[in-house]
C-alpha cells in the first residue's frame, strides 16, 4: 500500500471512494432538508416530524455496534454498496407509495437511512487505511472532509430550489440517484476481505464484545478518551443544529432563511479549508495533529460557535462561523486518523462503538436542546451544550498535557528489560 496515494490501482480505488463519499453526502444533505419539510407536510404535525428524526437517530445509534461487527467480518465496499442500494430503493418506494401509505413509508425510510449511513461510515473509516496505506490515512481523511464540505454546500444550496421548482418527488428521485451513483463508483473498487485477528488475548465474546466494550479494553486510554470528547462534541453540535433556525427567526425576522444559509455555508467553507490544509500538511509531513491538537481544536470550535450566537454583525459572523467549521474539520480529521491507527482486526468494532457514542451524544443533544429552546434563548442553550463539550475537551487536554509523552501514541510492544 505504499503507493496508495500516488498511482496505480490503490490510487484509483481511493479516488472512487472519495467520489462515492461526495455523492452519498450530497444526497444525505439534500434529504436532510427535503425530508424534514416533506414529513411536516404529509403528517401536518411538528411532533411527528421530530419523531421521524428521533427514529432516524435511534436507528443509527443501534446500528453502530452491529456495523462494527459486520465491517470486521465482511467485505466493506460491498456493505457500502448494499447500504446505498437499499437507501435508493426505499426512496423510490416512498415516491411510488399512495398518499395513505406515505406516513408508514417515511418511518421505514428513517430506519433505512439511519442504519445505512451508520454502516456506510463505519465501513468507510475502517477500510480507508487499507486503501490509502497506513502512512497516508491522514491525507485521505482530509480529502474526505473536503469532499464532504463541497457536497454539503451543494446539498443545502440545491435542496430548497429543487423542492420549490420541481417538487418533492423529483428531489427524492435525484437523491436516490446519488445513492445509485455512489454504489456504481464503489462497484469499481476492489472488494477486500478484512484481516482476521491473530492468535493472542482476545476481546470478550458475547453482548459486551458486540457493544464494543471488549475492544475498548484493548486500545490505548487516549483513544477511549478521544471517543468521549467526540461524543460530548456531538452533544454540543446538536445545540447549534436545532438553534440556528430559532436564532435566525429572532435576529433576522425579515430573512431567516438567508441568515441560516450564511451560517451553514460559512461553516462548510471552514470545514473545506481545514480539509484542504490538512491534506497539504499530511502530504509534507505524513501526518496531521496529535491528541493535544485535537483537544485544542475541539475547545476552539465550541468557543467560536458560542460567539456566533451572540448576534454579531455580519462582518464578524462570517469569520466566526468559518473558524468554527475549520476547527471542527481539523478535530474530525485528527480524531479519525488516530482511531485508524488501531490494528485492523479491532478497528471496525472500535469505529462501531465510536459511531454509537456520537449518535447517542447528538441524539440526546437534539432532544434536550429542542426542549430547552421552548423556554430559554438560543444563546443560553448553545452556551450550556457547547460549554459541556468545552469542559470535556479541556479536561482531556489537561490530562494529555501532564501525561508522559510516550503514552500519547499508539500502543507498542513492551520492551524486554535486560539486566546486566
UniProtKB/TrEMBL annotation:
Against InterPro entries, the record matches this protein to:
MFS (IPR011701), MFS_trans_sf (IPR036259)
Give the main localization category: membrane
One Pfam match:
MFS_1
Q: Which residues form a coiled coil?
A: none
Topological relation to the membrane, as annotated:
Multi-pass membrane protein
Where would you find the membrane-spanning parts of this chain?
17-38, 50-72, 79-98, 104-124, 145-164, 170-189, 210-229, 257-279, 291-308, 314-331, 351-373, 379-399
Please tell me whether the keyword Nucleotide-binding is annotated for this protein.
Answer: no
Q: Where in the cell is it found?
A: Cell membrane
Question: What SUPFAM superfamilies is this protein classified in?
Answer: MFS general substrate transporter
| Record flagged with keyword Transmembrane helix | yes
Which keywords does this chain's UniProt record carry?
A: Cell membrane, Membrane, Transmembrane, Transmembrane helix
What name has this protein been given in UniProt? MFS transporter
Amino acid at each position: 500500500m505504499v503507493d496508495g496515494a500516488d498511482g496505480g490501482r490503490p490510487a484509483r480505488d481511493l479516488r472512487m471512494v472519495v467520489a462515492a463519499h461526495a455523492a452519498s453526502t450530497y444526497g444525505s444533505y439534500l434529504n436532510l432538508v427535503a425530508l424534514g419539510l416533506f414529513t411536516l407536510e404529509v403528517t401536518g404535525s411538528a411532533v411527528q416530524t421530530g419523531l421521524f428524526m428521533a427514529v432516524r437517530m435511534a436507528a443509527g445509534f443501534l446500528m453502530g455496534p452491529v456495523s462494527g461487527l459486520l465491517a470486521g467480518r465482511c467485505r466493506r465496499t460491498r456493505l457500502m454498496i448494499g447500504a446505498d442500494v437499499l437507501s435508493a430503493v426505499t426512496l423510490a418506494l416512498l415516491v411510488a407509495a399512495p398518499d395513505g401509505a406515505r406516513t408508514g413509508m417515511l418511518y421505514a425510510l428513517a430506519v433505512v437511512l439511519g442504519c445505512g449511513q451508520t454502516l456506510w461510515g463505519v465501513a468507510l473509516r475502517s477500510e480507508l487505511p487499507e486503501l490509502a496505506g497506513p502512512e497516508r490515512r491522514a491525507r485521505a481523511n482530509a480529502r474526505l472532509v473536503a469532499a464532504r464540505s463541497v457536497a454539503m454546500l451543494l446539498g443545502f444550496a440545491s435542496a430548497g430550489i429543487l423542492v420549490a421548482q420541481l417538487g418533492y418527488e423529483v428531489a427524492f428521485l435525484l437523491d436516490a440517484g446519488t445513492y445509485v451513483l455512489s454504489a456504481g463508483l464503489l462497484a469499481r473498487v476492489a472488494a477486500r476481505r478484512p484481516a482476521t485477528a491473530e492468535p493472542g488475548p482476545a476481546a470478550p465474546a458475547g453482548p459486551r464484545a458486540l457493544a464494543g466494550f471488549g475492544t475498548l479494553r484493548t486500545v490505548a486510554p487516549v483513544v477511549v478518551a478521544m471517543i468521549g470528547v467526540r461524543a460530548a462534541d456531538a452533544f454540543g453540535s446538536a445545540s447549534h443544529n436545532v438553534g440556528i433556525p430559532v436564532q435566525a427567526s429572532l435576529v433576522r425576522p425579515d430573512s431567516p432563511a438567508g441568515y441560516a444559509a450564511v451560517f451553514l455555508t460559512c461553516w462548510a467553507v471552514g470545514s473545506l479549508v481545514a480539509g484542504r490544509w490538512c491534506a497539504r500538511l499530511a502530504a509534507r509531513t505524513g501526518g496531521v495533529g496529535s491528541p493535544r491538537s485535537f483537544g485544542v481544536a475541539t475547545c476552539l470550535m465550541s468557543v467560536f460557535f458560542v460567539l456566533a450566537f451572540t448576534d454579531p454583525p455580519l462582518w464578524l459572523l462570517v469569520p466566526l462561523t468559518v473558524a468554527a467549521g475549520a476547527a471542527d474539520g481539523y478535530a474530525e480529521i485528527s480524531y479519525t486518523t488516530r482511531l485508524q491507527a488501531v490494528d485492523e482486526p479491532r478497528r471496525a468494532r472500535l469505529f462501531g462503538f465510536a459511531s454509537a457514542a456520537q449518535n447517542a451524544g447528538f441524539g440526546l443533544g437534539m432532544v434536550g436542546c429542542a426542549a430547552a429552546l421552548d423556554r430559554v434563548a438560543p444563546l443560553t442553550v448553545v452556551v450550556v451544550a457547547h460549554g459541556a463539550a468545552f469542559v470535556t475537551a479541556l479536561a482531556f487536554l489537561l490530562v494529555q498535557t501532564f501525561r508522559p509523552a510516550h503514552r500519547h501514541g499508539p500502543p507498542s510492544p513492551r520492551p524486554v528489560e535486560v539486566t546486566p
